[in-house]
Amino acid sequence: MKALFTEDCVLLPPHGDTPRIGQKGLDEYWFRPGAPPTQITKLEVTPQNIGGDGEVAYVWGTDEVAWTTLQNDKKTAQSHKGIFLNVLRKQPNGEWKISRRMWDDRLEHH
Question: Tens-digit pLDDT profile for the chain (110 aa)?
């Protein structure tokens, strides 16, 4: 997954969480040492709009993500539906990588 992002990427997590900068920020947010093993069980991405030019592009839309974690022999399932915005930059080798990623999920009303 880290290969999808530029070295200087910026993650803007939901609910006003602290922005994470660069590959180090990715590790701190998604790949913390000692975190329980996680398996993605569903990833459904529905682009609503795509645009840009030959160097920078954007895509926004909706997504649904589900995953399980295993800790102390107990499996826990979680999921969310939300919205996202990705800004991509064309790399010197022609690959497109995510430079900025912002997302949010629906607040559950009880």
Answer: 779 999 999 999 998 899 999 999 998 998 888 888 899 999 999 999 999 999 999 999 999 999 999 988 899 999 999 999 999 999 999 999 999 999 998 766 54
Distance of CA 23 to the CA centre of its chain: 13
- Token pair of 42, please? 């569903």
pTM of the entire predicted model: 0.85
C-alpha to C-alpha distance for 49 and 99, rounded to whole angstroms: 17
CA distances from 97 to 23, 34, 85, 105 (A): 13, 28, 13, 23
The CA dihedral of 100, 45, 41, 28, to the nearest 10 degrees, is: 10
Residues near 24 by beta carbon (within 8 Å), at least 6 away in sequence = none
